[in-house]
Amino acid sequence: MQTSESFSRLPVELRLQTLAYLPLSSLCTLPLVSRDWKDFFDTNETTIFRNAAALHRFIPSSTTPLADLWSIYSKRSLIDVDGWKSFCRRRLYIEQSWSGKRPSTVTEHHATGTAVQRIKVDEAEGYIITTSKMGGLIVADLVHNQVLWSLPRDYVPPFTHCEYGKGYLIFDRSGGAKELWRRAWDCQISPEMPAVSLPDNKQHQVSSAIHGLFKPWALLKMPMPSLAFRFVYPTLIVACWDQMYLWDVPTGMLIQTIAETQDGVATRGDINYIEVSPRHAFICGSNLLRIFSRELGKCVLDIPSTQFSFADWSYSLIPCNPLGTSPGAVLFPHDVVPESQHVRPPVNYRVIDQFIAAHVSACGSNLVALLSSSRIIVMYDFERAVRGEVEMREIALDIQLGSPSCRSKYLAFENGRIAVATEGGLFVFQLIFVDHSGGSTQREAPRLTVYRASRFGSPSLLKFISCLQMSDTGLFLNWDPTITVNRVRSETIFNEFLMQRTHYTTNDFNGDYFIQFETPHDPIPRTHRHRSTVLSIDFVPLNRDTE
Fold first, then answer.
1. pTM assigned to the model
2. 396-400 and 408-414: which strand pairing?
3. Residue 55: partners with Cβ closer than 8 Å, 6 or more residues away
4. What structural domains and CATH numbers belong to the chain?
């Protein structure tokens, strides 16, 4: 009490500066200490909780005005926010819900159609974009679950891949060209069309028939057949067999060509996925992950997929029980142990695996790559390895998400979170790296917590996931909502996966071991594989009563 009285005699500005270093958990208890503390908080609530929002990195700085929140966050994440205190309460709830400490809900978005192939989510504008295994494209309202706009099945081919960002929608046309559409109200604000790559009559004809949310913007004709494409505003990257083409989407202009992507010391192999950042381009090949410098226009780092170990820090999952999870929480923390416990072939042989996806952080410095064998590699500040300052394994984590005999399905990396779908489970995790910039030579392993969605535990359904997307407040995937998964049975199957010995087949001539993928038996009929729609796991409370 004496300490409290001494603190209360300090000038107001000094007290506020001191409180700016306290986390929300402490700020919530201080008003309960005494009447003086409560009065002080009531009088200075705006400053105290705006500083707390900055401390927790909910906002760019402590000078950010409240009105700017609606340009930073989506409307659904700001429901009932009327000041800095309610904003901090809402953000804290969302963070705790992602970590299984608060309830979360599963929502079926039936307006997205059936046989969903690809998903893109614009939470700020409130809609979901999907393409279908049967053809067509749908834009559905995220909240009201109704179709806002669509393109017919005979216009968008079956199994079409699509990309989206900042109001630009891109998808394949039969024949290899890429159609670019732009949100209609953005066209009204900035109506000047690209000077090159103009849309053709086919786009204008279908647009005049459906009017609405998007308008034709450009048609990009590829110099040669394309194998993969990826859009990270404002750049669209298209990979062909031995070249990559980079386009500026707002202008429709080809801005760079990177040649000889296949040749080099190591052969890249077939293309599984590509990624782009302002400084680099990435190709996930069947033999290696290849990183290119956009400035130099050449390969600067190869990471073979045949390595037994990719990092000094390796982790694997161990059996655990989701009992005791917060009531209503979809995610629960799953136990991990250092170093993989899975059986490896002899060291004089190679394991043949593949990189199937890679994503880079918004800052362009952190890289996450997914191997086919339920294995994820996280590279923190990978450019240090590119520059030769460190070995790649010194800045990487090697995480085995269950048995390597279960194939990986999809990877998402947004807002500092990583989500992975495999034939064994659905996982979300966040890494906290220790900053060694102060000169310390002692290396400390990053703190790792893995969360798993026990409700999504059927191998027969997990194997048909073709897309996984994350937003600030939700995780979206294609799933068959008509099937109820027995959680006890799914937990039993998953724990069997963890205890399963990895199967390898060998080719003695080359000395290579191939992982033998075997999805364990699960009695859900294959006829359900085309009934999937979009389900979301929502980590945002719908009203103040749930907080």
1. 0.90
2. unpaired
3. 20, 21, 22, 23
4. 2-98 (1.20.1280), 305-537 (no CATH)
**Under a CB-based contact definition with an 8 Å cutoff, are residues 399 and 448 in contact?**
yes
Torsion of CA 343, 344, 345, 346, to 10 degrees: -110
**Angstrom distance (rounded) from CA 397 to CA 138:** 38
Residue 188 CB burial class (10 angstroms; 0-12, 13-18, ≥19): exposed
pLDDT of residue 448: 82
- What is the token pair recorded at 16? 């506020």
503 vs 404: CA distance, rounded Å: 9
Q: Tell me what the mean pLDDT of segment 489-512 comes to.
A: 64
Dump strand ranges (E) for 11-167. Answer: 105-109, 116-122, 127-132, 137-141, 147-151, 162-165
Bond from prior residue into 404 cis (ω within 30 degrees of 0): no
Count CB-CB contacts under 10 A for residue 38: 13
Spell out the residues 6+ positions from residue 25 whose beta carbon is closer than 8 angstroms to its own.
Answer: none
Q: What would the two tokens of residue 439 be?
A: 């000169």
Q: pLDDT at position 546, please?
A: 45
Task: Dump pLDDT digits (tens) for 406-436.
Answer: 889 999 999 889 999 998 899 999 877 655 4
Reference 399, options 325, 452, 323; nearest CA is: 452
Packed helices 45-55 and 35-43: angle between N→C axes, nearest 10 degrees: 80
| Percent of the residues in the chain that have a pLDDT greater than 90, as a whole number | 56
- Structural element, H or E, at residue 495: helix 487-499
Confidence of residue 341 (pLDDT cuts 50, 70, 90): very low
pLDDT above 60: residue 544: no
Percentages helix, strand, coil for the chain, rounded to the nearest 5?
20, 35, 45
Q: Averaged over 80-92, what is the pLDDT?
A: 94
- Residue 39 is which amino acid? D
Strand partners, 299: 292
